[in-house]
């Protein structure tokens, strides 16, 4: 049954109220979407209607954002803040001082959920780390941030980015341009993260000097990668043979992060995923860490977590129906 509560901000500060609400109340709409509540406002009075838990979290979000509303609140401020509010329970809070500090140009970058903190810690303390989970959980972005951190601290000499080009069947010759231009569409998320964390000019110079390299998975066979930070993105689309080939490229002083989402496998029907097999085969291998993300770790738009949850429910329903039809 829906309930309502009221949040009142006194003394009245119209500038803070404007920043809190955002243009056309867009910030309030994000809070509504995140916690499944309805918010109406009259001046400094905010009426929240919804279920108990969501309403309490929405009230905490309003109060928290109001405290930070001395200046403009960006879309990122709101969305990341909502993730932190959703993880307010003691069991979901990272331990104080447990989050690794990353040396990037975004000084505020840190793990927003306990699993993100675990992921960053695993990357720093293991030579090979798997990050497996749904879209929006920060798998790729935090891997790139960790690579930039290791490069800036001179722990590695170069950053290598790779990804299976499943859509082109690993046959890139028909695409125009040189090798870098052929695989650009597949590596764009990695580029975007690098530009965000290092700046466009610095990334461009490092590409010219070989400090950052793109290496299509199909072209990595026979190489040994020493003193490098290697990221294999979209690893759910590798075959078992490709995954084994990649993992055996790791050389002296190298660190590798493998990311993927097992719910978005684009391989031909009947083809096994190298990421799925690697998770099973390497589970007990010392020196390898696996972080499994869930929908509660999604740090994109609040609706992404609900979308992931809806697809999970549908997958579970389909599995039950399939099981009931078996003799």
What does this structure look like?
There is one protein chain. The chain is α/β, with parallel strands linked by helices and 327 residues long. 43% of the residues lie in helices and 14% in strands. It contains eleven helices and nine strands. The chain has helices at 14-21, 26-35, 52-67, 75-86, 114-125, 139-152, 179-198, 200-209, 240-247, 274-281, 302-325, and strands at 3-8, 38-42, 45-50, 128-132, 158-162, 212-214, 228-232, 255-260, 288-292. Strands 6-5-7-8-4-9 form a six-stranded parallel β-sheet. Strand 7 (228-232), helix 9 (240-247) and strand 8 (255-260) form a beta-alpha-beta unit. Helix 1 crosses helix 3 (52-67). Mean pLDDT is 84; it is low at 89-93 and 168-172.
Quick summary:
The protein is of the alpha/beta class and 327 residues long. 43% of the residues lie in helices and 14% in strands. It is built from 11 helices and 9 strands.
Described by the principal axes of the CA atoms, the overall outline is globular
Kindly, what is the distance between the CA atoms of the first and last residues, rounded to a whole number of angstroms?
A: 42 Å
- Classify the secondary structure makeup into a structural class: alpha/beta
Q: pLDDT under 50 segments (min length 5)? A: 89-93, 168-172
Major sheet size, sense and barrel closure: 6 strands, parallel
Helix content class? 40-55%
What are the secondary-structure elements, in order, as H or E?
A: EHHEEHHHEHEHHEEHEHEH
């Amino acid at each position: 049954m829906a309930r309502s509560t009221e949040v009142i901000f006194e003394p009245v500060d119209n500038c803070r109220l404007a920043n809190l609400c955002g243009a056309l109340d867009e910030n309030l709409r994000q809070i509504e979407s995140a916690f499944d509540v309805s918010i109406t406002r009259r001046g400094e009075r905010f009426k929240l209607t919804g279920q108990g838990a969501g309403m309490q979290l929405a009230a905490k979000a309003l109060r928290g954002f109001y405290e930070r509303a001395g200046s403009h609140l960006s879309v990122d401020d709101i969305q990341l803040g909502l993730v932190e509010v959703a993880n307010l329970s003691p069991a979901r809070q990272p331990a104080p001082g447990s989050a690794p500090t990353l040396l990037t140009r975004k000084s505020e970058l840190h793990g927003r959920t306990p699993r993100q903190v675990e992921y960053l810690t695993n990357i720093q303390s293991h030579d090979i780390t798997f990050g497996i989970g749904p879209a929006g959980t920060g798998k790729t972005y935090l891997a790139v941030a960790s690579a930039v951190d290791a490069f800036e601290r001179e722990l590695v000499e170069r950053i290598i980015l790779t990804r299976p080009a499943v859509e082109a069947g690993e046959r890139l010759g028909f695409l125009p341009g040189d090798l870098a231009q052929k695989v650009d569409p597949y590596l764009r998320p990695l580029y975007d993260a690098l530009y965000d964390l290092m700046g466009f000019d610095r990334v461009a110079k490092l590409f010219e000097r070989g400090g950052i390299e793109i290496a299509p998975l199909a072209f990595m066979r026979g190489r040994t990668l020493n003193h490098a930070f290697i990221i294999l993105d979209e690893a759910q689309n590798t075959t078992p043979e490709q995954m084994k080939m990649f993992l055996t490229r790791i050389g002296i002083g190298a660190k590798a992060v493998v990311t993927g989402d097992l719910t978005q496998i684009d391989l031909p029907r009947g083809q096994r995923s190298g990421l799925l097999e690697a998770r099973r085969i390497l589970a007990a291998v010392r020196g390898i860490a696996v972080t499994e993300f869930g929908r509660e770790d999604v740090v994109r738009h609040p609706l992404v977590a609900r979308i992931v949850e809806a697809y999970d429910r549908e997958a579970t329903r389909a599995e039950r129906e399939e099981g009931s039809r078996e003799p």
